[in-house]
Amino acid sequence: MNTKEKIFNVSLDLFSKKGYDSVSLREIAEEVGIQKSSIYSHYPSKEAILMDIFNQFTKSFEIDDEEIQLTENNPLLENPELFYHKGSEAIKNMLFEETNLKIWKLILIQMHHNEKIRLFFQNEILVKPLIFWEGLFALLKEKGVIKKDSNTHLLARQYYSFPIYLLLEICAKYDDVPQEVLENFFNQTEEHARFLFESVKVK
């Protein structure tokens, strides 16, 4: 691990535990084992470190457009049981990285102080996923997979809000998340998806 990577990791650890405003460059330098002035060889400011962390977080949301296109050939429509796994697998792939969990905690704190982060959270975490899932429920209704009187907007919110709640719960309880907690998270997410889908599926 080179010096810049150490600065990144130490900063993320400190920011996610103490909050961005409570951490100084001097504290970061001491934890890394370098002089404060040495940080400027890699980052021009503390905010630059924060934005580097944020930019890494945004990459985890970059999805191939073809992968999420809601078309008649979407495998979720041909095999609705895949529905149980689609959302939880996406979150699983992201959360199994300890770095991403720390970034989640930091984002939840810092979105109240940084407009770019707040807008990202609003659009990428809250708005776009609901648009996708509502569109999928609408197609499932059109194909007769779920009941015709299903409220697709409400279904999307119900489906998506549960894993977000679990994620907030994890972030509130743990600094370092035990592996068994993550496994339980995925099991609960899929159990909830199965329960919700079975309640509206055409028998």
In short:
The protein is mostly helical and 203 residues long.
Please, could you describe this protein's structure?
- The protein is mainly alpha-helical and 203 residues long.
- It folds into two domains: 1-49, Homeodomain-like (Arc Repressor Mutant, subunit A, Orthogonal Bundle); 60-200, Tetracycline Repressor, domain 2.
- It is built from eleven helices and no strands.
- α1 crosses α2.
- The longest helix is centred in the middle third of the chain and has 28 residues, at 115-142.
- The chain is elongated, with a radius of gyration of 20 Å.
- The chain starts with a helix and ends with a helix.
- Mean pLDDT is 83; it is low at 64-68.
Give Rg in angstroms: 20 Å
Strand count, sense and barrel status of the largest sheet are: none
**What count of helical segments does DSSP give?**
11
Give the overall shape. Answer: elongated
Instruction: Estimate the helix proportion, in percent.
Output: over 70%
What string gives the helices and strands in order?
HHHHHHHHHHH
Strand proportion, as a percent range, falls in: under 5%
Oligomer: single chain
Overall residue-averaged pLDDT value: 83
End-to-end Cα distance: 55 Å
- CATH C-level class of the largest domain: Mainly Alpha
Domain count? 2
What's the count of strands?
Answer: 0
CATH structural architecture of the largest domain = Orthogonal Bundle
Q: Do you know the CATH topology of the largest domain?
A: Tetracycline Repressor, domain 2
Structural class: mainly alpha
Q: Detail the poorly predicted runs.
A: 64-68
